[in-house]
Design brief:
Elements lengths: L2 H28 L4 H8 L5 H8 L7 H11 L3 H5 L2
Helix pairs in contact: 2-3
Pfam families: HTH_3
Protein name: XRE family transcriptional regulator
GO molecular function: DNA binding; DNA-binding transcription factor activity
Length: 83
């Protein structure tokens, strides 16, 4: 992959993670959940810092974590990634 193509792919991934994070944050706030409460609901031992990194698009998340977040927020995975 060329340097330009790699840069574009990286930028697209960063944009995607930021959009996903914003959606998770919006849903969390609508339900008046704290970072710590959501982390507890998904079984994360990292707590507030982990949820914050996800919401700011600074952390890749596995499909299993995405599923647990969706379940905790009362939505389907598709609802989180459809933007």
């Amino acid at each position: 992959m060329s340097t330009l193509a790699a840069h574009i792919a990286q930028q697209m991934e960063e944009d995607y993670l930021q959009k996903l994070g914003m959606k998770i944050r919006r849903l969390r706030l609508e339900q008046e959940l704290s970072h710590d409460k959501l982390a507890l609901m998904i079984g994360s031992s990292e707590g507030k810092a982990y949820i914050s990194r996800i919401e700011f698009g600074k952390s890749n998340i596995s499909t299993s974590v995405l599923y647990r977040i969706a379940k905790a927020l009362g939505v389907k995975v598709h609802d989180l990634i459809d933007f």
